């Protein structure tokens, strides 16, 4: 399977389920090792048995020298280490050097102590809120004021190391406001009536979607929406070899495949 569940917050319930209801015998993590030629996803293999979790799990993180091995079976038996997984914690599959680095890093404050780390915008309806250049021009031609809330957006695939390629993609930022900061929700009926017609064209399915704000056309609440107008670092969430970061002063927004780092001094 994809290996994201062994480390991510959204995989916590699944990890706890395995600990409570099975004995995880072996875990092989192909972190950074490309298994499928046409997919960028990192993968893992878990072998488990329906019995109490009493013993340590045999774990291994695949490295480049695996290519020289005659079989995965032999490679695993030569290299595996033992790990005991604990409820509510990530399942870390680390070699000795990585464990040393992890312990060294954890002696210091985390990056989130100094800056804010935030996801990209989750619209719940990308085909509606994320538009191309032709639709942008159409909506702006209907009312020039629409430009005030239609913002250029970057996705993970638009970002490269220290830069970006803008693909003429835009977000209709009908944000839900931030009550604590005195930012009101965008009011389409009063301020952008031509956009109301655009949103209504998507019918009841769009109006009744789960992820929405105070009005059916508003985006779900995002308490850092204002940070997109500030200088920030944007980075791609999925990469094959090295990170893709760049410093943004152009007020780009991002979707759920590109995240932002912001704060004093950025």
Task: Describe the structure in your own words.
- By secondary structure, the chain is of the alpha+beta class.
- It has helices at residues 12-21, 72-79, 96-105, 126-129, 133-142, 188-191, 193-200, 203-207, and strands at residues 23-29, 44-49, 57-61, 81-83, 116-118, 130-131, 150-154, 159-160, 163-164, 170-172, 232-236, 245-248, 253-254, 258-262.
- The strands form four sheets. A four-stranded mixed sheet has the order 2-1-3-4, with helices on one face. A four-stranded antiparallel sheet has the order 5-14-11-12, with no helix packed on it.
- 21% of the residues are buried.
- The mean pLDDT is 92.
Low-confidence stretches: none
Mean pLDDT: 92
Distance between the termini: 37 Å
Structural class given helices, strands, pairing? alpha+beta
For the biggest sheet, the summary is: 4 strands, mixed
The total of beta strands comes to 14
Order of strands side by side in the largest beta sheet? 2-1-3-4
Computed over alpha carbons, the radius of gyration is 23 Å
Number of contiguous helices: 8
Task: Give the overall shape, derived from the CA principal axes.
Answer: elongated
Strand content: 15-25%
Helicity range: 10-25%
Order of helices and strands: HEEEHEHEHEHEEEEHHHEEEE
